[in-house]
């Protein structure tokens, strides 16, 4: 269980950090401005394309992808500290073609896609030319228990006919999101509940598919967006199926592990950045005759934040290491743990930083308010905290029973 | 210490609740839509004027004002449950001419204004024809310790000359905010630190005054807004002074007590509404074979929320009662307590409700995300939590020392 | 909902506080010493008898009993602040014949006892000549769900035959505990689960009954004790039944409301005392160049403690008031709330005080360690926190459903 | 940063765990009984001597000592998981000669002792033949800020004369504690505050030294005890000085790092054991128709406990690793972090387990109540939590300032 950064990782960290400092941080305002000027919150700002080109030229591209052929060939443990650095700016992952849900989508295309599917969708995704959506969550049902999903995919001859609604399809609010991976019921009466659903590929311009609207996140409209989609008798050829019929849950599971590591490390990166800001502010301002940094309560905020961040980082490294060396199943409990811990650290630390900044902290003048909103979203993305706590507890109880039975 | 609602209060509660149900709740969307369609987030929507007329016609007007002549003549304890009802919809207080900061401003106009000032500003405020701003907080300094305030007001002959910046001036982003009460240093070298500042009235259109921009609140742009103001050699006649020279702190203190009761009761109203939504959702959705309402963790959220709300309400009643019957000074500790407690209950309960709603909770489809943002702001409005905790502790320690010395 | 102390209550508070200051606080050590010297932790120390005589002479006797004939005729709301004062010293309630479980036992004797039962047991209890036990909780089953209780009471002719074990029978470790109210299954197959159990009176010296051992509380051995009892074919006449057959749950419910108010107010009294000690210590000691009272973290402890205490007190008053004026059923939710809140305040505040006292706080040199242990016990007495949270949530959900259905 | 257990460590873990299972756990009752029967809580029970002999024979001896010559030659990281296993039974460390404060005392004897001091005291300590005390903390002053220490050590000719009081001298309540390392003021007027104190060795039977009394810990009397010592003109030869004059702080610092790792790992061991008990109980009992393990709130307790333990363990490993590979100074922040985290995990997890056990949890029938008391003590041992939080925050702020200045 060696968490030390290898020379290769340290070199990538150095390059990535330098890139962030040189090109991303100074362009935060440009990014916002280009979008604002376009009048369309989902406008794809030219600065993004510029930065993508630069990043790719420097070899900071597809870092997330463990596959040697398609990506950087890093393990989860090696990629983790890079995701942490990206987490400092909300929209930076896309610069390195490392943003969700495309990362997970590329993984399942690589793993389950036919050669044709790979050619048509994986290749342009790897190039960053198009984006993809993952349409699983549905309005009107508690999707945190996926058994509840109602969307139907019926086979008629050589076609699948899709009907229903999906929402929280991240990325879909931009036109460049060209392909959706859609999960729906193909065998609703199967007594094995986890073998009722299938994944099907639906191109954006397929008749019957409407990108209805964008969902805001705690008041923020994300540039890539989180869309609600309506499918009315949407027809695609059977060859658009991803993986086997009724195998959606298995594919979905395959996708989750690394994605959670990425999310968590970005959250830890956001929290670290907030802690830096907090300390900075605490040393610059004074009340009641002392610098904020000398007030016991502010010291408390700083120390508790550092403790939370350090622990969450080590735990995420362990989850990544376990996934890399033993496997996803062995890492399951650890992944549930970080899925609960990292969003908490994200919102806790940012929330304390906001309090240290006072009114400025809740305004547009610092990135903190937006960072908090993103952290809040992470308590729900890929299942609410409560679902992971439940799963973790049940797994621990089961393990204890098995140990006892031995 | 009788907290029971009198017949008069019950009658007002009934009327107010009926008004909210009949006219406010059903017009939430209209309110948002009229603003959105105008293209200006600070557009004054016609629905507001309509509802104000209706409310006034029903006698639901200036309920906050204890003064029999100008207002409803209610005590703080009597007004508290009405503020709670208004708290259910963010923008509803203005309908009843009960919104901050105009309430506090009207109070100090009534208490410290000259007859001319009352005629010119208090009367149209009481009519709801104009709005007013309270310009105290400054960018660039920790305004939670008001000794830090830097804004200067220099007397030159019969005029005051104002220079500096103010921000978080609530209401100022709408044109109809016609008058600002501005606090600044008139005697910066006074060894008595709390007698260095003066309050001066500045009409909106005074040369040299620029309403620079609006500040967003955790991603939300409020219709009335929170503005940053720039004062460059702004000149007003000496007769525009409110109260005595160097008496700004005393006036500011006079203004605070009731305002905090109002804020806290609105927070409690918001929390109660969130709890209702939480229970509603918990009874409508199911996961893992049970209604959410049957899950122990959700039951926990419901019970803890109810406990927090009930305690905060009683504490606020006690603060109001003490202020009404003994006086503001005697109520000081209790006001500090509710100032800490009510924003916590606001954010805690809304946050739990969001979690129960899942993705929908962070979106624009429920009022919860916006309610949370407002609650988060309340942790900073009128001083951050930490300042009130410090003041309360110091007061308790001092009281203990005095008791011991006796 | 008038919480103000009447003149009568203020007079009793003054007398009780004076009694505590003059006789109880100065005799804390004597109490401990007399027990220690006897070599028997359950020795009944003479100082207790002395203080009881004094208290009775001053009219500070049976204050808890709302019945005018037998007791002081105070309402729950009137008695509450008196219980708070008693809560400052762990063993003081008995001085005033106001200690659990005798208080609750006297209530049900008065309410459900036959004339003969009253004469034999209630009268000496009211005189403080004997003590009584309430044997409900059982080892080996989760008694927090009383349906689980296994103890059997079989009728054979004119006798009941009792078999089983009980524990946590408070008071039973002292010989002077002469009578046990025992709850057991008389109709185990009744489909109405809450009509299976009966209450039966068993004198201490009945053959077959063994007071097996005392249970310690977080390391402390209480003088009155919490005993484990074994019943082996214990026979009592049918006339020893308390109330109707299979009515144990109804009787048990009748007993609970006031008892919870008492417990909670004593917890609040303990917390208030701990806060006083905390402030005292914080003003006497210094670290790093400042008095502890000037450290932000210590100020935080003081302020948060005061806030918790004040809120818990008001909530308990409301529960008492509701019980007095509307009835137990109406007060049910509020009683559940205080049952959760008061033990928390008890342990939270004492825990902070311990931390301020450092090593001394965990030693025998302050009452804090013992106070904490008692507070910890209160999280479990009369059902664990979790059970009350569950009951409260279910009740709120049900109320919401009913409101909706109307 | 490799945290994986080496083969050597795994072999020691296996042996130690087997020893605990075979000899320690089954003798818990014997240990308590032998002490109880002796009538002296500080009686040295024969079972301890027996187990020590066995452990030594198996090579499970002085495992803590990194020194190859005197001890097992393990690094801190290697010893950490062994301390965790010992933490499962409160008194087990002594069996392996690994108990505080002897471990730290042996370390400073080895590092700072003269050959004669080593011969006289270190050797029998390494053999487990005697025990030693570390007399630093004083009654009457806030010893968490050691500058406050008042105890005087005056040089008179070839002797030191010691006067003052010490308390919380762990181990001293047993006769076999033969030597005290005593810290006192030798140069009280030194402007460099951390160079005023000296360490001096005082044998137990030195005239003028009284072991006054034992201090209990949250109601528990520990067998080795925590004593209060009175020194009245105690005279020892100058050769009894440990290290240089006025160097006590430096020596004290040298002692702290590893000791904190040991304490923290034992706390983590205790928490792990409590979690096992919690799960066990949750699977065995039922309420309201479900096993406790199926209740959401209990699942919450289990999952949160596992998350806390896992994070604390990784953090402690990191602190140990840093100390081993970079050095104590580099590990300073991490040691402060675990010093705050581990006692929290200890008390949090045990507290939840108690709640799951109900009344039994607070009684003598499980080890939980005693475990909690020990955990509570750990929030104060080696400085209260607040001191470490303050130190950590100040260090982080300083680091940030330095980084900025670069």
From TrEMBL, chains A, B, C, D:
Acyl-CoA dehydrogenase/oxidase C-terminal domain residues are 250-396
Q: Which InterPro entries match?
A: Acyl-CoA_dehydrogenase (IPR050741), Acyl-CoA_Oxase/DH_mid-dom (IPR006091), Acyl-CoA_Oxase/DH_mid-dom_sf (IPR046373), AcylCo_DH-like_C (IPR036250), AcylCo_DH/oxidase_C (IPR009075), AcylCoA_DH/ox_N (IPR013786), AcylCoA_DH/ox_N_sf (IPR037069), AcylCoA_DH/oxidase_NM_dom_sf (IPR009100)
> Which molecular function GO terms apply here?
acyl-CoA dehydrogenase activity; flavin adenine dinucleotide binding
**Transmembrane segments annotated in the record for this chain:** none
Q: Where do the Acyl-CoA oxidase/dehydrogenase middle domain residues begin and end?
A: 134-234
Kindly state one GO CC term assigned in the UniProt record.
cytoplasm
Assembly with partners or alone: Homodimer.
Query: What is stated as this protein's family in its record?
Result: Belongs to the acyl-CoA dehydrogenase family.
Protein name per its UniProtKB record: Acyl-CoA dehydrogenase family protein
Q: What is the lineage of its organism?
A: Bacteria, Bacillati, Chloroflexota, Chloroflexia, Candidatus Chloroheliales
């Amino acid at each position: 269980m060696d968490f030390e950064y290898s020379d290769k990782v340290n070199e990538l960290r150095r390059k990535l950090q330098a890139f962030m400092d040189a090109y991303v941080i100074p362009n935060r305002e440009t990014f916002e401005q280009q979008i604002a000027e376009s009048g369309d919150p989902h406008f794809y700002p030219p600065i993004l394309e510029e930065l993508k080109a630069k990043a790719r030229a420097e070899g900071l591209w597809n870092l997330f992808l463990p596959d040697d052929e398609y990506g950087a060939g890093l393990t989860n443990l090696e990629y983790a500290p890079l995701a942490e650095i990206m987490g400092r700016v909300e929209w930076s992952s896309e610069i390195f073609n490392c943003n969700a849900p495309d990362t997970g989508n590329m993984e399942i295309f690589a793993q389950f896609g036919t050669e044709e599917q790979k050619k048509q969708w994986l290749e342009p995704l790897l190039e960053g030319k198009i984006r993809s959506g993952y349409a699983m969550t549905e309005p009107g049902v508690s999707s945190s228990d996926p058994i509840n999903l109602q969307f139907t995919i019926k086979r008629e001859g050589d076609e699948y006919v899709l009907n229903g609604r999906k929402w929280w399809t991240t990325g879909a609010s931009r036109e460049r999101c060209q392909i959706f991976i859609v999960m729906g019921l193909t065998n609703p009466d199967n007594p094995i509940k986890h073998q009722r659903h299938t994944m099907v590929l639906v191109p954006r311009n397929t008749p019957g598919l409407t990108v209805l609207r964008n969902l805001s996140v705690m008041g923020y409209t994300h540039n890539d967006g989180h869309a609600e989609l309506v499918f009315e008798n949407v027809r695609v050829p059977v060859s658009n199926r991803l993986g086997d019929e009724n195998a959606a849950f298995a594919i979905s599971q395959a996708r989750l592990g690394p994605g959670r590591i990425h999310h968590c490390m970005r959250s830890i990166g956001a929290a670290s950045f907030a802690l830096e800001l907090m300390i900075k502010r605490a040393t610059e301002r004074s009340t009641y005759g002392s610098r904020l940094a000398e007030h016991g309560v502010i010291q408390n905020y700083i120390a508790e934040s550092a403790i939370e961040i350090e622990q969450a980082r080590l735990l995420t490294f362990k989850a990544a290491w376990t996934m890399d060396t033993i496997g996803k199943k062995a890492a399951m409990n650890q992944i549930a743990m970080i899925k609960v811990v990292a969003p908490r650290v994200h919102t806790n630390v940012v929330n304390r930083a906001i309090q240290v900044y006072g009114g400025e902290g809740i305004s547009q003048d610092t990135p903190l308010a937006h960072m908090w909103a993103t952290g809040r979203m992470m308590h729900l993305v890929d299942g609410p905290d409560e679902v992971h706590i439940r799963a973790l507890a049940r797994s621990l109880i089961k393990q204890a029973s098995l140990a006892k039975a031995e």
